[in-house]
Specification:
- By secondary structure, the protein is mainly α.
- It has one domain (17-115).
- It is 81% helix and 0% strand.
- It has four helices and no strands.
- The two termini are 29 Å apart.
């Protein structure tokens, strides 16, 4: 009888630890997602500035005021900005998939394979599922 009770208590603690870990993982994912969104906003402003720089350098080269090196450098900065934007979008997608996995308890591939939106149960109230006592 004591053995069964000890096993039951151990499984209850393991489930509690898993729930807490899921909540912590979700919190970290949301913080990372927020950070990526801020970086993407800054990158959008940078992209607008770089596009203007490329335009100005193109006009300067056409007017024989500047050589092609400045235009090439501006285009390189523009390409780097687009590359960084693509990297951030990939990271954002991975984080969103991770959040779906945490909320649904399904691996990301399973959610995509359905070909439709999967309704997930939202996280329980953080105060109830993760007590600090």
């Amino acid at each position: 009888m004591k053995s069964a009770r000890a096993q039951w208590q151990a499984s209850t603690l393991a489930q509690s630890d898993q729930s807490r870990q899921a909540v912590l993982d979700a919190a970290v994912a949301y913080v990372d997602l927020s950070k990526i969104n801020l970086q993407m906003q800054l990158l959008q402003k940078q992209h607008e500035a770089v596009a203007r720089l490329v335009y100005i350098e193109t006009e300067r080269v056409r007017a024989d005021v500047d050589n092609g090196v400045s235009l090439t450098r501006a285009k390189l900065v523009e390409a780097r900005t687009r590359t960084r934007s693509a990297e951030l979008e990939g990271s954002e997608l991975q984080l969103r998939k991770r959040l779906v996995e945490l909320r649904c308890g399904l691996p990301g591939r399973s959610v995509i394979r359905f070909g439709r939106r999967v309704e997930c149960q939202p996280f329980a109230d953080l105060r109830r599922s993760f007590s600090l006592v």
